[in-house]
């Protein structure tokens, strides 16, 4: 009897081990992505925004760098994020005080903000204004953000009952202390430029770019101001039906353009392994670096997830519900630059992030069609990347 029990137990162990091997094999098979690139457009090097809420600037400038490379036929370019951040904070501080503090004042902003800054002030190369005047090798803005917020809050209270002529200089002084002085002129390859003439040399025309979105609470083919706090300049976006919105994105990539992409990344489906899909689970944002804020620390985040089989079919109603109930928010700006397929034939957009070489693909994410349909707040594209029939419906010339 003992022999029979022992034999049975050993058989059970063998079967259990065999089943475990089979289970492990199945898991490995489902979690290994095999991507095939369908179309890939040129991008500049991966950057790291680190402990700063400046994704909007990193992604918009990356998008513009690709635009310039496409038009001028150059191989690389590196524009100064902190030039834009400094001018953005300057403009926002003035508007904040004008509105007696009734305006979002913080690190976050929008793609349109970058276009406004370049149109009004120009742009400079990264080497001219790296913006690291506070003793670290990467951006760490929490102290600066709080110092600026405290300053403009005090000014907005108008303690003298009449604003002095000095307060804007004080604001710019804080910005200069942290990010450096705004250069009046500089040299590139032996030629002297101002920020404005360098913008013109690069051929950047902010009027060539439009913001698009897709929501049901405003009429399609009209413009509206997306109601999020970071849209502090109150820029308008063109509103498209979801299928046409996605058509623009595919058309842009297929015709050699990239896309500035604003998305909600505080989702379990957007994880550290470099893939974004739409699983039916919730995840709370973390803290610390910008990456940890949205997808948690590495030890808390899944390193792999199942290949995107049977994802939800995303509808306009689902998008609207997410926006209305604030399960879709304007978390993060990135750059879409290509299209790929996984081994199951699912379409993915190739995404350049600004978290350094994070993730399985060294700073690149693959966002499924379903994820992009569901969690995109808005995009900015070259108006020439929009199909002609859609441009006509929107009244864009």
Describe this structure in words.
With 397 residues, this protein is an alpha+beta fold. 39% of the residues lie in helices and 15% in strands. It has twelve helices and twelve strands. The strands form two sheets. Strands 1, 4, 5, 6, 7, 8, 9, 10, 11 and 12 form a ten-stranded mixed beta sheet that branches. The chain has a two-stranded antiparallel ribbon with strand order 2-3. Helix 3 packs across helix 4 (111-121) and helix 5 packs antiparallel against helix 6. The termini are far apart.
Short structural summary:
By secondary structure, this protein is of the alpha+beta class.
| Uncertain regions spanning at least 5 consecutive residues | 1-30
Structural class: alpha+beta
User: Biggest β-sheet, characterized?
Assistant: 10 strands, mixed
Radius of gyration over all CA atoms, rounded? 24 Å
Helix content: 25-40%
Number of strands: 12
Large-scale geometry: globular
Distance N to C terminus: 89 Å
Multimeric state: single chain
Overall average pLDDT: 89
Per DSSP, what share of the residues sits in E-state strands of 2 or more residues? Answer: 5-15%
Secondary-structure element order, N to C: HEHHHHHEEHEEEHEEHHEEEHEH
* Alpha plus pi helix count: 12
